[in-house]
Specification:
binds zinc ion, Nucleotidyltransferase, domain 5, 10 strands, 5-stranded mixed β-sheet, binds 5'-O-[(R)-(carboxyoxy)(hydroxy)phosphoryl]adenosine, alpha/beta
């Protein structure tokens, strides 16, 4: 029988738990999102997040075990996100995983959250190494060459905001609520993407770095210049913002694909998109057009597996377990944990090392 791994995700504002078998079957999955708890504050509040994880984690673990009809003794391992992320939440998930391992004599797999996003396409689409990953979420924005489990080369990342963060901030300026990405996309559907000529950040520059703060400022200035008229222009502002984002991200990804080809001339590149912003249809369309022009292929896992979830942690755990990579029970949670330790920090160092 295929070995089954329990996965636990608590690094941000989703409590995710799932059971995944080594043969890529998802036996059970459960996610509790904390959107309502944080909406009032317009962003994720770490202490509230940690408390909410404590309140729901045990119940979600029970739920997936019952749904699959499995006892803990039948598991092959427990995988939990050990970083990067909000330290309070990480401690909740990792400690719970350690307790289950200790009681039932199971191995622990301490999973890097970014690696879990990176490997999801192997669960959903059986994508072979190497491939190019575009990770665009509320906390991350990077292009990474995925060469194997534990083997990553970062080609570029943001020098300021993550892409989801930029969506959230624009939504806040327009009074659209939190999380902003889906609200911006909905408003944009009725708008004219050509009305405002927002800057396309980094367009035409060499390399694969992202930047969104200039674009964000341009949106703010437009809102101020419009004054009371801004209200009626919300759909056009959103559509124009989205068009600028899509053009910029497609340009950065085009450069990354070219670099990928020089590193791996023997393979037709596969572009995998992960993270919450992968749900954005305008962005997906721009990337689809890009891969069509460059004879590569696009793989986007379903939205529920692009946003934070326990399934990707269980799968990353299964991938590591297959290679014999398990971790001691005194493994620590890490707020920062870059995928590619050799990459230059794009956001500056800080006392705890490079931000991911
Ligand atoms: O991956 P995720 O669920 O959480 C982490 O940040 O790890 O990503 C959430 C981010 C938020 O910033 C949200 O606004 C954005 O993804 N997002 C979107 C869309 N759906 C979610 N951004 C643009 N368009 C969307 N449809
Ligand atoms: Zn994530």
């Amino acid at each position: 029988m295929a070995r089954v791994v329990l996965g636990i995700e608590t690094s941000c504002d989703e409590t995710g738990v799932a059971l995944v078998a080594e043969d890529r079957r998802i036996l059970a999955e459960a996610v509790r999102t904390q959107v309502e708890e944080h909406a009032l504050y317009g962003g994720v509040v770490p202490e509230i997040a940690a408390r909410a994880h404590v309140e729901s984690l045990d119940r979600l673990v029970r739920k997936v075990m019952d749904e699959a009809g499995l006892g803990f003794g039948e598991l092959a391992a427990v995988a939990a996100t050990a970083g990067p992320g909000l330290i309070g939440g990480l401690l909740v998930g990792l400690t719970t995983a350690k307790a289950i391992c200790l009681v039932h004599g199971l191995p622990l797999v301490a999973v890097n959250h970014l690696e879990a996003h990176a490997l999801t396409a192997r669960l959903t689409d059986d994508v072979a190494f190497p491939y190019l990953l575009l990770l665009v979420s509320g906390g991350h924005c990077q292009l990474v060459e995925v060469n194997g489990v534990g083997s990553y080369r970062r080609l570029g990342s943001t020098v300021d905001d993550a892409l989801g963060e930029a969506f959230d901030k624009v939504a806040k300026m327009l009074g659209l609520g939190f999380p902003g990405g889906p609200a911006v996309e909905r408003a944009a559907a009725e708008g004219d993407p050509a009305r405002f000529d927002f800057p396309r950040p980094m367009l035409g520059r060499p390399g694969c770095a992202f930047s969104f703060s200039g674009l964000k400022t341009a949106v703010r200035q437009t809102i101020l210049a419009l004054g009371p008229e801004a209200r009626r222009a919300v759909p056009d502002i959103c559509a124009s913002f989205q068009a600028a984002v899509a053009a910029s991200v497609a340009d950065r990804t085009r450069h990354a694909l070219a670099r990928f080809r020089t590193h791996h001339p023997e393979v037709e590149p596969t572009l995998v998109v992960a993270g919450g912003v992968a749900a954005n249809a305008a962005l997906r369309a721009a990337l689809q057009a890009l891969v069509a022009r460059t004879s590569s292929r696009l793989v986007v896992p379903p939205p529920r597996l692009c946003t934070d979830n326990g399934t990707m942690i269980a799968w990353a755990g299964a991938e590591r377990l297959r290679l014999g990579h398990t971790d001691p029970l005194d493994t620590r949670a890490r707020a920062r944990w870059p995928l590619d330790p050799d990459a230059e920090p794009a956001l500056g160092g800080g006392v705890k090392g490079a931000k991911a």
